[in-house]
Queue: 4 jobs
Job 1
Amino acid sequence: MHEMSLAENVLQIIEDAAHQQGFTRVKTVWLEIGQLACVEQESLRFGFDVVTRGSIAEQARLEIIETAGQGRCEKCAQSFPLAALYEACPNCGSYDVKVTCGNGMRVKELEVE
Amino acid sequence: MCTTCGCGNGQTLIGGHALRQQRKLDGPMRFRSHDANADAPDVSTSRIVKLEQDLLAKNNGYAEANRRYLSAHGIFALNLMSSPGSGKTTLLVKTIAALNGTPPLAVIEGDQQTENDAARIRAAGAPAIQINTGKGCHLDAQMVGQAMQQLGLQDDSLLLIENVGNLVCPASFDLGEAHKVVILSVTEGEDKPLKYPDMFRAANMMLLNKCDLLPYLTFDADLAIEYARRINPALQVIRISATSGEGMPEWLEWIREGCRNAVAAKLEASLG
């Protein structure tokens, strides 16, 4: 349940941006969360609701954009969609797979006023 | 505060002292009101602010600072992670006894509550500091940085960080360590690496612990290692038992080699 810490990080990024860019209310937050990022989206939504109470992002809409996992086989160099970390290369069956996409977590943008 | 597992901020203690926050997250934020400042943007108009900021950037910044400090002082740091009850603390106690002061070492203990583990480590003869995460489920790099300061680490030493017993959350938080070590005990299931892949992906070394119990169990050690290497083909594995001493020489040599490399890298950096 590190999603609570992640939600606190989201709020801190928002508050830092508010200081720098002078907005006073956040209406929508777009997060980009990788499919392989070890994040439970419902827990993150719950954490976001809790930590934003009384902040400039209170009642902000949270939009989570899930980015698909992608891997590249280190043996045969094939790239393929990767839904879980334990999947083998569909081309050669090797488990030596490097995650090339879908393990990141970012605050993408905000709608503010 | 999370009502699922109780995670949250504000109750972290490091050696009994509260964590120093750079800025209080839940403190009142002061902003100029629209009326008070004619230069402020029109609040009735929404606009989009592009950020593209990594959620773990703050932790990663603290972790990099820890890593710089550790490498500048020739300190080899390991982050030990496992589920509760895998035998981490017993393994640490045996490791401390076997190393017998060479290299000098210190321990950071992470648990939600109690000083029990730090007390066990001190009784084994090593300086230790306890981080109580309160309701938090993992150590982060800021806590570890402050614990490192309080411990007063020796140059050219070993730092062992025992993370909170949890196979999920600690995997995402870099502490500035040289290696993450995951401990799996044979009293767990062989398929734990598949069930908790992030942890086994993040680690460089797996200790398969309590191997002295294998004759009494149906646990298939080869299968557990195969599963772990499906997740992480480069994972090093040592079959070990803190009780019988099996695998301890290999583990101690791996630690000593890491320490020698850390000292050598420090000297090289100071000459370069």
Job 2
Amino acid sequence: MNVNEVKRTIRSGNEAAAQAKTTLGQVADEATTTLDLAQLTLQGSHDDDVVAALKIIKGLDGEVDRAIRRAEAAIEHANAYLAAIG
Amino acid sequence: MTGDMSAVVAQLLELRERLAATAVIAMRAKADAEHGHDQYAEAARGTTHPRLQQAMADMRIVGDKSARIARLLNKARDHVTAYLNRIAPGAVRDGGSHAGAMPTGEQLLADAERRANAKASVGSFLRRAVKNVENIQDSTKTATELGETGVKILRSPSGPKGAQSTSTTTPSSATTVSRPKMDVPEAAAQIAVLGIMTAVAIHKTSQVLGRTIARWRNR
């Protein structure tokens, strides 16, 4: 094991973090379409299950954004360590 | 729009499937995050450097949040199922509610794969339709074009050799691909959903674009 190998491992971690970001972006896109479909279909219903489902779907965008920001923060920290290794 | 319940039921069934498929994607994000965490952890053996520890902690949170998103999607799906079972008993064919339990990954994956196979042509058409509407200003003309293309695709939703074809002659195409046969409720769902998705695309273009731009800005 040498410094180069450690760097490679961290970069591989960064790639996985970037992949997680991309995948979460897909979740956000799907959630947007799903919300449009849900709102158009369910407008006019005040049923408890309908209200609960719409509330959850509406909140997804924010949940995904927070997860994406965490992945970005992870990459930033890892890059800072890479810089520290020199 | 006519006050017909069949379209609403078809759209709600489609909504259930989309929620399940999106939960599968969220679980994939969880796996990505766990892999990233493990790589950082491997590199961090023998050091307690705060930046590397922080990277690990962040990736752990990404994984947890992704799993939570998948759980929320399944919960929303359960609510839709409960509503469907009340307003149209029997419409949900797979038994519906998971009684609070999460569907297994295999169930979800099988569901998503079946969906992807059966809806390949309609799905890609929808994606293109939404994209086109976002890109083209002349929405009236686009709507007409989309309608025409949509009708063409829906007439043969399973590809060149449509499952609904009653012709007894051998199809002239030599490149016929065998695809899963679609039953009538599924076809009805696709027609209904195509209509509503086209409407969504045309009427909500500005909102979708605005949200997308906002997301890009935040990244």
Job 3
Amino acid sequence: MTSGDVKQLVWGAILLALAACVPLVANGYWMSIALTIAMFTVLSTSWALFSGPTHYISLATAAFFGVGGFLVGTGMSDYNTDYWTMVVIASLAGTVLAFLVGLATLRLSGVYFVIFTLGLAEMIRTLVSWIQNNFTGSRGLYVLTDLGEADIYIHLVLVAALVYLAGWWIARSRLGFAMRIIGNDEMVARHVGINTAFSKVILFTFSGFVASLVGALIAPRYTYIEPNGVFSPELSFIVVIMALLGGTGRLWGPIVGVIPFALLQEYINANYSNYSTLVLGIAFLVIVYFLPHGVLGRLEETWAKRRRSTW
Amino acid sequence: MDIIITGLLLGGTYALIAFGLNLQYGVARIMNLANGEMIVLGALAAFWIFVADAISPILTMLIVAPLSFFGNWLIYRFLLRPLVRRAKNQGQLEVDSILATFGMAFALVGIMVSIHGEYYTYSYLAEPFEILGETFALNRIVAFCFAVLIGAALWLWLYFTRTGMAVRAVSVSTEASGLVGINVPQLSAIAFGLGGAVTTMGGTLISTFITLDASVGVVFTMKALIIIIMGGVGDIRGAIVAALILGLVETAVARLIDPGLTLAAAYAIFVLILLFRPQGLFGRKPS
């Protein structure tokens, strides 16, 4: 570990500790926005851990998130299980699912992978609704806990710490090195003896685990869990937009996109809720045509240019 | 029997839609994820014109087709062509075009929601018609016939005209067809426009017997992709068979188990194909 590495850790810890202090100053409205931001920060950062280096656009976030939220709901309403037990079970189930999906799909690339992951959430959603309609009878599930938004927020900050630590470690490990080579040229990676499938499955599973954990932790916020809500494909797209908007080149890139986009969405939903889909579309187009490497990538380019011109 | 015929009728329209996407992906090499929204646009146009002026959806296709051709041509020329030029490799182009066409899809959904946010309900030729002693809705049969007609016309164009031959050449190899003097960018734009026009006409046909709304486009994109992957990219014969299979399976699942599970069934087929025959039903294994 070099001194630079340690410095990054210290800075990260300080910033996270500051983030954990938000509930002390924020009132109800801002607390709720901070919670949304925390949720998307965790989701898009863990998304970028896998999709950033590999350029595989995964739309499976909603599937894992939904599994997490839904299992917590079922466990608590239908089986009277304790909340924390269900959180553990839900995140384990999400991890197993992600591992299986990873094994099945990572030989695919490009469009096949995108559609596969997009369809996954849709399929689980229709299956779950079908099972509920025909066998269990109840469509809505209640998650009643005495956790407030501030408690959930603290949980999410802790998960964020875990994700950032994992990302920091991966970037310095053989695994991260392997991922960068895979991202540059998968053929080369295979020829120098990297087990590409293994590396990809590990990271995909990790991001699936995080998404299902977030789904489980955020469930008490909604109180009432419904399959059409937790498996909403829109969530996957928002996560992709936020991560790409910020830039996936660096570990802290996604949060640069999360904060402004979450605020924008909050504003649009409050004032022009009919246009939220249109905004998503425009965001995608802006990213592709104007910010192909995210806001961070654009800034880094400008800095690099300025440095060269002052030489 | 009832299930088989209904399934085949549905499959016919699916085949037409997949034909459109195949033209776009096979020739212009852009996977158009806004494909489903083109279908919904066709349906919206049919609904709109039918409700306002009681003009038959079949005639609407005559208006919709050239508009959609031109619109898709513009999309290719001004939005997608720059991506093709900027891409350093096939992988980057793929990622860019996925994101760009998703963006277009969302933008189109947003626009369509603001035009008409409800279901596109209208009733056209909802009359009984008898085949082999069982009754079917006339609109499904008419839609099937027109899908076959359009598909046949397209096939004739592809196989018996000079431009059609050039289009097929580009789909075999972009570089080689450039070398023999084919204007690849121009032809790609034409194929993309034509594919879009065919898809939109498919949407108009579908809307005569299925009620759509602004947000279902992505479901149809998935179905068209499933058909193309099942049939093998660029393989028209395979796509037709795949579309008929999808139509049959969906109808069977809807009738025998639960209408809510059709999408799950389509997806299950997709997974099986990807795992066991990723090269498509009739494709050969890449060596």
Job 4
Amino acid sequence: MNKFFKASLLANVFVGMSSFSTITDIDRSTGLVKVEGDVNCEDLASTLYNLVSVFAPHTSQAELTGIWFDAYWTCLDSGLRYSEFEANP
Amino acid sequence: MSKHPFVIIFFIFSTLSFSQNLRVDYNAEFYGLDIDKNLKPNKEQQAGLDQVERMMRNAINSQTIVLYTKPNNQFLLEVEDKMTVDGQMSSNLGRSVLKLHTYLYGLDETTVLGYNVGEDFIVEYTNNVVEWTITSESKDILGFKCFKAVPKYLQSYKQKEISSYPNEVWFAPFINKRGGPYKFTNLPGLILGVTSSTATITAVKITEIKEDKIVPKIDKQIITEKQAYLNAKAVGAAIESRMMK
């Protein structure tokens, strides 16, 4: 998989999850990031959910759920349309 | 409800009375995640938390929040996502952080109904789960003197849920209407400001209107706030169980 998506959205998180995706190039003029490898949107959303529940323990359940779904849909909308949800609904 | 004496005096002798319905536009501002200061995230974790903060800020900035007062002390609050495109799923992250629904309908003195587009139930909020302390602390919002009221939540939820709820509300006794960007509105005046540990909502414009805003149909199952909380917990548990696999 070789995809482009907007740097401002999820670049930092993808760098932190480089076991299954790698940022190979950033075009600063367009704000697009080139990614190689499969990105599992469910794993990405879960990583953020876990981070917030650990480091911001007062975050409500509704907010955590909102964070999970926002990250999940943003990831899919970024053009990295790979997800276990889609593959195995 | 405890009331400071001069708040009561202001309320009783208030001379500004709006006979027409009002439209109140609000702005929301996100402060940031309420990070536990005893925990030190590493660089990668911090990058993830920064990303979540950007998501939350974007989600809140994209919300338009408008209140319409109605006859008989009713009100309708509409919270819409400016970025929503027809046919695309709208994120509810902004509304989750602000503790609001797509619509809040102040039905009567004790009850507010919360609707979300795409959900098959309506949540009923009753004022008897909040105890107010009205303080003498005041500030002006749009030229109206507002008093700070501090809610005490009586629900038996986990403390983390309660901690995320708004911790102060600013209401204008001079505006003889009920309502605000908040689920509990049994205060003697319109709510012009709401503050929680992560965000604040403030009125930025008030206009008199002739129309009586139409309320969306109440054609779904009405559930209690407690049931809505349990539903949210169940969704969270489902997410967490998938993580364990």
